[in-house]
Design brief:
CATH topology of one domain: C8orf32 fold
Radius of gyration: 40 Å
CATH class of one domain: Alpha Beta
Number of strands: 21
Order of helices and strands: HEEEHEEEEEEEEEEEEHHHEHHEHEEEE
CATH architecture of one domain: Roll
Largest sheet: 6 strands, mixed
Helix content: 25-40%
Length: 410
């Protein structure tokens, strides 16, 4: 009897044990299902957080450094960036599927402007799934511009302010300070050399100099040589004295004319070039668009001066930028020097062909977005060719004929 009770007790215990095991298994199955659903739902978020964490933890060692520095203020189209980055990575443009600039994906037709000096990052995604991170440095390579420099003349005893009219500006730092080297002794006749130096925060330096000429004041006093002391002589002497007084009054120095010196005319030309660039160059223009605007302005506003009319060189300084920009008549050298000033203020890279030679002069202008050089010759009515039509032989930019070939205007 006792044995049967023990068997029943054991069966009940085993039954409870099995029920507990089944219940635990059931709870585990339910728990695993809930965990899987939660994991699937949170997976994208976790991936995103992980990706964000990876990006934030990137250091410069994770980037390939673009060795060539890029110019402050330059603007690039998507297509130009695609070409440059593909060339840097040594891949075909077709292999690049996405370009991200500073974390933002770029699209075709979009333009990127480097509006500050410093480091910029690109992320380039390729067809094979790899991502290349590129770090480039944008630097300020343009030196400050010093304005108001021209030779000056004063008379003995006059005062002069060397700082007057001098102004220095920089494309990044704005108006900046400058230093002057040299002194003028207004009481001593002579020629004094003054130097003006300026340096921007990027270390770009500019130096210019001008002359101050101190001249003897002219007088027109006369001695009659008559020592008779009668009343008539006294009257004549008084009359002479009045004349001398008037003469001295009229001999006061007049303001110097900047057109009388080459440096003065150059300064006037620079000021006019700056004004023209502000008028014809608009924000967002490509180098080609800038070149067209400058070419058309000089082509339409400057009358050509034949080289063989040497007398015109003396009359209106036809071989200077001043002649093209202000007199509106110039030779090829004067027009090309004017174009050179426009390129400098428009921040366009150029090469001067046949400078100071008796050959036809013009510019080769570099189009950074297209990565090649073109002819820009307002005087010769040539634009856009890789080689000037006047070039003699081969592909080298070498000897150019002294003439005006047919039109090739934009």
């Amino acid at each position: 009897m006792d044995k049967k009770k023990k068997d029943r007790s054991h069966r009940k215990f085993y039954g409870l044990y099995v029920l507990v095991i089944v219940f635990l298994i059931f709870v585990m199955v339910i728990g695993i299902g809930i965990f899987r659903k939660t994991k699937k739902r949170d997976l994208p978020l976790k991936k995103q957080e992980q990706s964000s964490s990876d990006n934030s933890s990137q250091t410069e060692s994770d980037y390939e450094v673009y060795e060539e520095s890029w110019e402050y203020g330059s603007e690039w189209s998507y297509e130009s960036l695609l070409f440059k980055l593909a060339d840097f990575l040594e891949v075909q443009e077709e292999e690049i599927v996405k370009i991200a600039f500073q974390g933002r994906t770029l699209s075709s037709g979009e333009r990127v402007k480097f509006s500050r000096v410093g480091k910029y990052s690109f992320s380039v995604s390729l067809k094979d799934g790899t991502v290349k991170n590129i770090l480039l440095m944008v630097t300020d390579q343009v030196p400050p511009v010093i304005e108001g420099i021209y030779d000056r003349e004063i008379y003995v005893g006059d005062s002069i302010n060397l700082l007057e009219e001098i102004r220095v500006t920089d494309d990044v730092d704005g108006e900046i300070t400058f230093e002057i080297e040299g002194e003028v002794n207004p009481s001593k006749v002579g020629t004094y050399q003054i130097k003006v130096r300026a340096e921007d925060k990027s270390g770009n330096r500019t130096e210019k100099e001008f002359l101050v000429v101190v001249k003897e004041r002219k007088t027109s006093s006369k001695n009659n040589g008559n020592t008779n002391k009668n009343s008539n002589t006294n009257k004549n002497t008084n009359s002479n004295s009045n004349t001398n007084s008037n003469t001295n009054s009229n001999s006061n120095p007049q303001p110097s004319d900047p057109t009388k010196t080459k440096d003065g005319r150059l300064q006037l030309a620079k000021e006019e070039a700056k004004r023209v660039v502000q008028e014809i160059i608009k924000p967002g223009m490509s180098d080609r668009e800038k070149a067209i605007a400058m070419y058309q302005y000089l082509r339409d506003s400057v009358e050509k001066l034949p080289l063989w009319q040497q007398d015109h060189y003396d009359e209106n300084h036809g071989n200077e930028a001043y002649a093209a920009l202000l007199m509106k008549v110039a030779s090829c050298s004067g027009t090309t020097r004017a174009l050179e000033l426009l390129c400098q203020y428009a921040n366009v890279k150029y090469e001067y062909i046949n400078r100071n030679q008796w050959d036809h002069q013009f510019l080769m202008v570099y189009l950074s977005e297209e990565d090649h050089w073109i002819v820009v010759d307002p005087n010769g009515r040539q634009f856009g060719q890789n080689i000037h039509p006047g070039a003699e032989g081969g592909d080298e930019v070498g000897e150019y004929f002294d003439g005006y070939p047919g039109n090739s205007t934009p």
